[in-house]
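Field log, afternoon session.

UNIT: design team B
ACTIVITY: writing a sequence onto a fixed backbone
BACKBONE:
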């Protein structure tokens, strides 16, 4: 046991060094700054390029850094483990009345995000079916193509969801699917930012932006990834507790991990007693349900002031940073290369179809600031929430438009419903043929579009 824990510490030590290297390179190399690549992504690729996966896969005489196979196996498993506290932290500190107090624009943002994700899933289904007939020797696994929306709309952290869920289901291709999701997330993040900035420049010059006339330079501290001026450095979070009792960070981490522990116990009981339907749910579904219950209890007994949302977010961010670095450093390169042709077709068509869907629908349903709302959704549906936030900030530096609030609440709702529907989507992919998948996913996407246009029509009459 002592040896195992020591090896785990070694793994985190190396990941920490990769994160520091990524931070340094982000701060020094202009191209990384222009693309806003996170240090975790840069560090993860440094670990991949320097380690034995790349060197061994292509029989290069040199061996690279000889990371032990045990470390790489640990890095492969880490995203699926660390993503549990990331998901569990989501409901903590959430004000239910504020979250569900929606306006027409919030509902439009929510349904447009959801519908765009549906379009990406449909594209994935079509691409898989197409290549099954073009080249049967590829042996595409049943859920191939789902990685487009999980990587584009979910980001690198979602690779952990896929890996953990597929592994729990006993699917032999879980590691490959996790690697491909990480790949689509990387292409989505980089391409989404590049295409987004180009779109902003074109829109600003053609008068389609509400406030921006000439694209402004992004502040240097945001580009390089750290704040040098002590006067501008923000607080990490509130000190809710006194450290003579317990550190505030430890207090919040303890709540999150306690919720994760209860979720694991609940999942064990459900699977032991073979409770129908829910016995196949992944651990993060139990985690988010348990944490909603804990958060409700915290608010009910009147101690919600002991929860600091900023501190909670920092804990989730730490877990995500290590999960992303580990996922990229352990990418199954040869498996990804095997699927490179359908994967690249999926990625390129994903850019095109997502762009057309997002901005085409935004122009129709939003009467004000349609481009700003569209660029935020574009950033989210190709990268992560922060990508959309960054692109929105370029268009609206001081957040004078109401887009930020609508976008934030709409995204939260999309995330929640996405968690609920993921097991259903995967189950249908695994157990039913192409036509059934198209009918189910097409029905969900059409329902989202019907709701989107219904809200649009009702809001115009008021």
């Amino acid at each position: 046991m002592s040896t195992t824990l020591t090896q785990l510490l070694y793994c985190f030590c190396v990941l920490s060094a990769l994160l520091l290297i990524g931070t340094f390179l982000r701060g020094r190399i202009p191209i990384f700054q222009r693309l806003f690549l996170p240090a975790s992504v840069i560090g993860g690729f440094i670990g991949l390029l320097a380690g034995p996966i790349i060197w061994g896969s292509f029989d290069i005489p040199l061996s690279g850094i000889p990371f032990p196979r045990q470390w790489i196996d640990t890095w492969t498993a880490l995203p699926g483990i660390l993503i549990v506290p990331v998901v569990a932290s989501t409901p903590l500190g959430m004000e239910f009345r504020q979250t569900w107090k929606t306006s027409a624009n919030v509902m439009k943002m929510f349904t447009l995000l959801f519908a765009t994700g549906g379009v990406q899933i449909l594209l994935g289904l079509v691409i898989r079916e197409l290549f099954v007939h073009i080249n049967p020797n590829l042996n595409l696994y049943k859920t191939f193509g789902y990685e487009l929306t999980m990587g584009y709309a979910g980001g690198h952290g979602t690779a952990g969801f896929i890996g953990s869920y597929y592994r729990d289901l006993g699917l032999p291709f879980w590691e490959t699917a996790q690697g491909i999701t990480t790949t689509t997330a990387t292409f989505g993040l980089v391409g989404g930012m590049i295409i987004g900035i180009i779109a902003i420049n074109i829109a600003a010059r053609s008068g389609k932006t509400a406030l921006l006339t000439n694209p402004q330079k992004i502040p240097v501290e945001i580009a390089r990834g750290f704040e040098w001026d002590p006067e501008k450095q923000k607080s990490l979070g509130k000190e809710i507790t006194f450290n003579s009792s317990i550190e505030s960070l430890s207090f919040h981490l303890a709540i999150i991990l306690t919720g994760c522990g209860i979720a694991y116990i609940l999942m064990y009981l459900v699977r032991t007693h073979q409770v129908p339907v829910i016995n196949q749910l992944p651990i993060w579904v139990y985690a988010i349900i348990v944490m909603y219950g804990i958060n409700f209890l915290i608010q009910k007994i009147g101690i919600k002031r002991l929860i600091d949302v900023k501190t909670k977010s920092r804990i989730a961010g730490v877990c995500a940073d290590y999960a992303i670095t580990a996922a990229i450093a352990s990418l199954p390169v040869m498996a990804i290369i095997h699927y490179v042709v359908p994967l690249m077709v999926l990625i390129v068509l994903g850019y095109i179809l997502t762009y057309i869907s997002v901005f085409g629908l935004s122009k129709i349903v939003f009467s004000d600031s349609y481009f700003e709302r569209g660029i935020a959704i574009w950033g989210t549906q190709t990268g992560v929430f922060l990508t959309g936030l960054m692109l929105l900030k370029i268009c609206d530096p001081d957040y004078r438009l109401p887009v930020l609030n609508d976008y934030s609440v709409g995204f939260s709702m999309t995330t929640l419903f996405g968690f609920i529907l993921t097991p259903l989507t995967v189950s249908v992919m695994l157990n039913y043929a192409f036509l059934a998948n198209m009918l189910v996913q097409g029905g969900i996407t059409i329902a989202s579009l019907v709701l989107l246009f219904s809200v649009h029509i009702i809001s115009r009459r008021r």
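LOG NOTE: Residues 2-219+245-461 form one domain.
NEXT ACTIVITY: expression trials, pending approval
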